[in-house]
């Protein structure tokens, strides 16, 4: 009797595994195919029926991406824009989340909800004009600043939720222990909120890295970020598929690796806040 | 409740003004930097857009105040109405399909089975992947002659499709990509809902002799309904604003067959540099999104009320 | 060390008055317990003394200094919270030394002070642990240690023992008392448990709905409660209250039960509605006195708790001797009239 029940359970869980595997297969197949495209020579990519694993791997595709397209510069641009926009967002967003939570002014976060609903383009038009007027176009600053539209709301939103759940008694204890409000924040509230900061950091990083629409308007040949650079490769017709797929993989690989390693935090952050910028 | 948030700053401002020292720490300095940044990059653009929408201004030419003329022009603009229709179908499909698959996936991932954590991790990857990169690979897969999708279809005896290169197939094709990318978000939201579902009702339903479908229909569904509603709201807002995938794959083509409002807006403002008209479009688009969110939130409220009455 | 003077302190949240003008004088080194039912305003009062809550009116003095508008960090007080409020990211040692570190005391001084406090509380071996690696009792001790290290003018406790199990609570009660006797710092201790207040305090303040019902030494409150509320709140099991009037030199209930009166009574106009109060422990089992039927019998071994139905009145008795009483038995209970109290039914005051 008992062994039958156990057998039944193993069968059930095997069945579930199978179902889950089928559901995940479009994801696996997509990325496999992406890797395959990026490692094939032109002939293999044009073959019919298509080839998944070629006889000769075209590692040169990756070299070509960097050699012919200035990709190192664009990679560096992406790091600068995303890095600066995310760090700035943490510097101003974490204290703001704290202040809003403690002021019990969560309602003011409505502004963030509305920002979330606003199409990115309606930020672009006015800021584009302002940047032109300040003659900042041609530097990375316009992109860094406009990426704040993505990163700041994510950080503030997640941090409000986080600070709301940290017990206020700890901060009262600290103020009785002689801490000034700033010390309370820096020595007590901030260390306790570290997991929340990590979550908001990762999500802000990802959504800023992936952002495309701000770049196509604000970037020129020297200031492109990776998504824009990849798109520009595509729009030159006749470009061969191998290097194109390699470029796509290079763009998204950092994010995918981050997703793999920080899966738990990302899931936590997304289910809690369910935010996405832009 | 709403009045509290409005009163708060006032009383605080008064306290700053008059002298008596405060015991409760002053939290405004913490908020101030973010307030400035948000005003500069979020609130200012809103107001500026509103103002620009009342002007006629093509970049490089003089600006003139024209009142509501841009809005009048918008109402008469057939291309706008067409893009509105494209947006509607695109959004509807991009909500329904991820919702269906995402709920299904959540139900599966809520159970225990080997490698669950790993598979869930893989399943989440599309929504984190860079949309432009994703779009690029899909474009190659959709290729009528060389694409792998037509090959796969031929294996099951279906003839070649034109996918994004065909006027009537382009929106469904884009929706496939959108669904592929955003089903995981719905899955996560619903999974969060399922995690909050208590076990006891299932045990007592078991004793009452309910079958699996009945348990799903009468226990699971009502309990995760609020989360489904959240997923619908978030998905609607994201889908209606979808830009990266459409722009990278079709730029609104072939012709204007996949031109949504957002794409048309982009073209107006940054291809034709018609800033005034583009701003008006942005304002209307924004109002449409707000209205949609509002309606969905109302539906959610109503759902909650009827929920209460049942108990 | 310092005195604490509270004068006409008030607190309202918006239109709701929570504390209605309270005066308390606490002398140097005194251990004062604030007791009262849940929601009566104990925590609010304590938090105003601590500086965590703005006062709506009145004055608080710690020593000679008016502190009601001075922030908590400058009041020279230490507080132990109900949930201990230990900093989860600091070790026991860092938790205890945090206040000194903020004062920029030097490392050696912090170490020696923390070491001394740890020795008092038996925490020497736990100094490197984090709060989550401690048991409830140990956390409680760390919270106290954090307060001791400060060497403040006043200790404040807000229901510090209510998260502990019954046995540990009794033990910690003893330890806090011992600590107070050793250090002698003025202490204000909030609890809703009157046993804690009775056993620990030099002086008890009974609060009810934001008013003070009575202030006094524990035995004062027990022997001479000012009113029905205090009489019912102090003592366990609670005092019996029986409605009735004085007629023909005896206390009679409407159903005809007659209860003995204390001799030293001021003259009371007959016909006035009164409440007769007698503690269960002041009733003896006997062969005479009130006749009743046992409707509940609970023995703990050391004592026997019996509830009697005497002519429709429910009377609780606590007997020290072992008696063979079963449910439904008829019991005679003799009241010690010198221990009986009479209260005015209308005002609730003791006569
Ligand atoms: N921030 C607040 N806003 C409005 N009313 C409050 C607030 N804080 C406390 N109160 C009210 O003040 C009264 C006293 O609260 P307080 O916390 O001091 O009670 P307490 O005596 O400590 O009770 P307990 O034994 O349950 O801890 C309660 O009725 C409570 O509802
Ligand atoms: Mg309390």
TrEMBL record, chain A:
The chain crosses the membrane at residues 14-35, 73-98, 110-134, 140-163, 196-219, 239-261. Residues 75-262 form the ABC transmembrane type-1 domain. Pfam families: BPD_transp_1 (PF00528). The keyword Chaperone does not apply. It comes from the Bacteria. It is found in: Cell membrane. One of its GO terms (cellular component) is plasma membrane. It is a multi-pass membrane protein. GO terms for biological process: transmembrane transport. InterPro entries: BP-dep_ABC_trans_perm, MetI-like, MetI-like_sf. The keyword Transmembrane helix applies. Keywords: Cell membrane, Membrane, Transmembrane, Transmembrane helix, Transport. Belongs to the binding-protein-dependent transport system permease family. This is Carbohydrate ABC transporter permease. It comes from Neorhizobium lilium. The lineage of its organism: Bacteria, Pseudomonadati, Pseudomonadota, Alphaproteobacteria, Hyphomicrobiales.
From TrEMBL, chain B:
The chain crosses the membrane at residues 27-48, 90-109, 121-141, 179-197, 218-237, 275-299. GO terms for cellular component: plasma membrane. GO terms for biological process: transmembrane transport. Its main location: membrane. Keywords: Membrane, Transmembrane, Transmembrane helix, Transport. It is a multi-pass membrane protein. The keyword Transmembrane applies. CDD domains: TM_PBP2. Residues 84-298 form the ABC transmembrane type-1 domain. InterPro entries: MetI-like (IPR000515), MetI-like_sf (IPR035906), Sugar_ABC_transporter (IPR052730). It is found in: Cell membrane. Belongs to the binding-protein-dependent transport system permease family. This is Sugar ABC transporter permease. It comes from Neorhizobium lilium.
From TrEMBL, chain C:
Keywords: ATP-binding, Cell inner membrane, Cell membrane, Membrane, Nucleotide-binding, Transport. It comes from Neorhizobium lilium. Pfam families: ABC_tran, OB_MalK. This is sn-glycerol-3-phosphate ABC transporter ATP-binding protein UgpC. One of its GO terms (biological process) is carbohydrate transport. The gene is ugpC. GO terms for molecular function: ABC-type transporter activity; ATP binding; ATP hydrolysis activity. GO terms for cellular component: ATP-binding cassette (ABC) transporter complex, substrate-binding subunit-containing. It is a peripheral membrane protein. PROSITE patterns: ABC_TRANSPORTER_1, ABC_TRANSPORTER_2. Residues 4-234 form the ABC transporter domain. It is found in: Cell inner membrane. It comes from the Bacteria. Belongs to the ABC transporter superfamily. Its main location: membrane.
């Amino acid at each position: 009797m008992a062994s039958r029940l156990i057998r039944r359970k193993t069968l059930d869980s095997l069945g579930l595994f199978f179902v889950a595997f089928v559901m995940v297969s479009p994801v696996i197949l997509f990325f496999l195919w992406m890797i395959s495209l990026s490692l094939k020579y032109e002939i293999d990519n044009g073959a019919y029926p298509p080839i998944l694993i070629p006889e000769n791997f075209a590692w040169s595709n990756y070299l070509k991406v960097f050699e012919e397209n200035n990709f190192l510069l664009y990679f560096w641009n992406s790091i600068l824009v995303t890095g600066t926009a995310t760090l700035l967002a943490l510097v101003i967003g974490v204290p703001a989340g704290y202040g809003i939570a403690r002021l019990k002014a969560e309602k003011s976060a409505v502004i963030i909800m509305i920002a979330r609903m606003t199409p990115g383009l309606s930020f672009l038009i006015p800021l584009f004009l302002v940047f032109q007027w300040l003659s900042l176009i041609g530097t990375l600053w316009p992109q860094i600043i406009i990426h704040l539209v993505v990163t700041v709301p994510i950080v503030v939103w997640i941090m409000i939720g986080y600070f709301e759940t940290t017990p206020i008694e700890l901060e009262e204890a600290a103020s009785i222990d002689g801490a000034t409000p700033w010390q309370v924040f820096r020595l007590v509230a901030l260390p306790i909120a570290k997991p929340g900061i990590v979550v908001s950091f990762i999500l802000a990083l990802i959504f800023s890295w992936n952002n495309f629409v701000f770049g196509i308007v604000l970037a020129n040949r020297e200031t492109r970020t990776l998504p824009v650079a990849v798109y520009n490769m595509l729009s030159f017709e006749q470009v061969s598929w191998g290097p194109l797929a390699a470029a796509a993989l290079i763009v998204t690989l950092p994010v995918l690796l981050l997703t793999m390693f920080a899966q738990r935090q990302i899931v936590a952050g997304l289910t809690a806040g369910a935010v996405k910028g832009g | 409740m709403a009045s509290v948030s409005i009163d708060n700053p006032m009383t605080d401002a008064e306290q700053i003004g008059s002298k008596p020292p405060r015991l409760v720490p002053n939290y405004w300095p913490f908020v101030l930097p973010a307030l400035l940044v948000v005003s500069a990059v979020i609130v200012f653009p809103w107001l500026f857009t509103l103002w620009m929408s009342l002007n006629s201004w093509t970049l490089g030419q003089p600006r003139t105040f024209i009142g509501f003329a841009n809005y009048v022009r918008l109402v008469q603009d057939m291309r706008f109405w067409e893009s509105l229709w494209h947006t509607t179908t695109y959004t509807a499909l991009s909500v329904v399909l991820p919702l269906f698959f995402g709920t299904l996936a959540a139900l599966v991932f809520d159970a225990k089975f080997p490698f669950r954590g790993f598979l869930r991790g893989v399943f989440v990857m599309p929504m984190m992947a860079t949309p432009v990169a994703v779009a690029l690979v899909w474009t190659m897969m959709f290729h009528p002659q060389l694409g792998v999708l037509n090959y796969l279809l031929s294996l099951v005896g279906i003839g070649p499709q034109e996918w994004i290169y065909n006027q009537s197939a382009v929106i469904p094709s884009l929706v496939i990509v959108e669904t592929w990318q955003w089903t995981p978000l719905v899955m996560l939201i619903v999974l969060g809902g399922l995690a909050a579902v208590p076990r006891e009702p299932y045990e007592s339903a078991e004793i009452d002799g309910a079958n699996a479908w009945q348990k799903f229909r009468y226990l699971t569904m009502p309990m995760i309904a609020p989360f489904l509603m959240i997923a619908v709201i978030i998905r609607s807002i994201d889908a209606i604003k979808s830009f990266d995938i459409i722009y990278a794959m079709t730029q609104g083509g072939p012709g204007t067959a996949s031109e949504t409002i957002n794409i048309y807006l982009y073209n107006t403002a940054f291809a034709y540099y018609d800033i005034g008209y583009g701003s008006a479009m942005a304002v209307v688009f924004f109002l449409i999104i707000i209205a949609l969110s509002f309606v969905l939130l109302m539906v959610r409220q109503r759902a909650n009320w009827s929920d209460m009455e049942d108990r | 060390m310092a005195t604490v003077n509270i004068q006409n302190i008030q607190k309202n949240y918006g239109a709701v008055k929570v504390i209605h003008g309270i005066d308390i004088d606490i002398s140097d080194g005194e251990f004062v317990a604030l007791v009262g039912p849940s929601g009566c305003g104990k925590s609010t009062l304590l938090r105003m003394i601590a500086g965590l809550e703005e006062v709506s009116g009145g004055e608080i003095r710690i020593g000679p200094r008016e502190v009601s508008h001075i922030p908590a960090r400058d009041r020279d007080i230490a507080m132990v919270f109900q949930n201990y409020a230990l900093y989860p990211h600091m070790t026991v040692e860092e938790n205890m030394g945090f206040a000194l570190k903020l004062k920029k005391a030097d490392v050696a001084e912090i170490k020696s002070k923390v070491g001394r406090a740890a020795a008092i509380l038996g925490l020497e071996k736990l100094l490197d642990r984090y709060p989550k690696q401690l048991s409830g009792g140990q956390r409680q001790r760390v919270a106290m240690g954090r307060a001791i290290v400060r060497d403040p003018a006043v200790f404040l406790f807000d229901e510090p023992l209510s998260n502990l199990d019954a046995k540990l609570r009794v033990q910690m009660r003893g330890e806090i008392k011992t600590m107070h006797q050793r250090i002698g710092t003025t202490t204000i201790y909030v609890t809703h448990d009157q046993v804690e207040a009775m056993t620990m305090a030099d002086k008890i303040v009974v609060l009810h709905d934001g008013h003070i019902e009575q202030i006094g030494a524990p035995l004062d409150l027990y022997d001479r409660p000012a009113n029905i509320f205090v009489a019912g709140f102090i003592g366990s099991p609670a005092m019996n209250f029986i409605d009735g009037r004085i007629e023909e030199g005896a206390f009679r209930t409407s159903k005809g039960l007659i209860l003995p009166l204390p001799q030293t009574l001021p003259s009371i106009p007959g016909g006035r509605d009164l409440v007769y109060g007698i503690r269960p422990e002041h009733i003896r089992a006997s062969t005479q006195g009130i006749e009743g039927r046992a409707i509940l019998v609970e023995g703990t071994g050391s004592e026997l708790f019996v509830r009697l139905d005497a002519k429709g009145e429910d009377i609780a008795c606590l007997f020290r001797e072992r008696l063979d009483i079963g449910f439904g038995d008829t019991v005679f209970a003799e009241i010690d009239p010198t221990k009986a109290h009479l209260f005015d039914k209308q005002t609730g005051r003791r006569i």
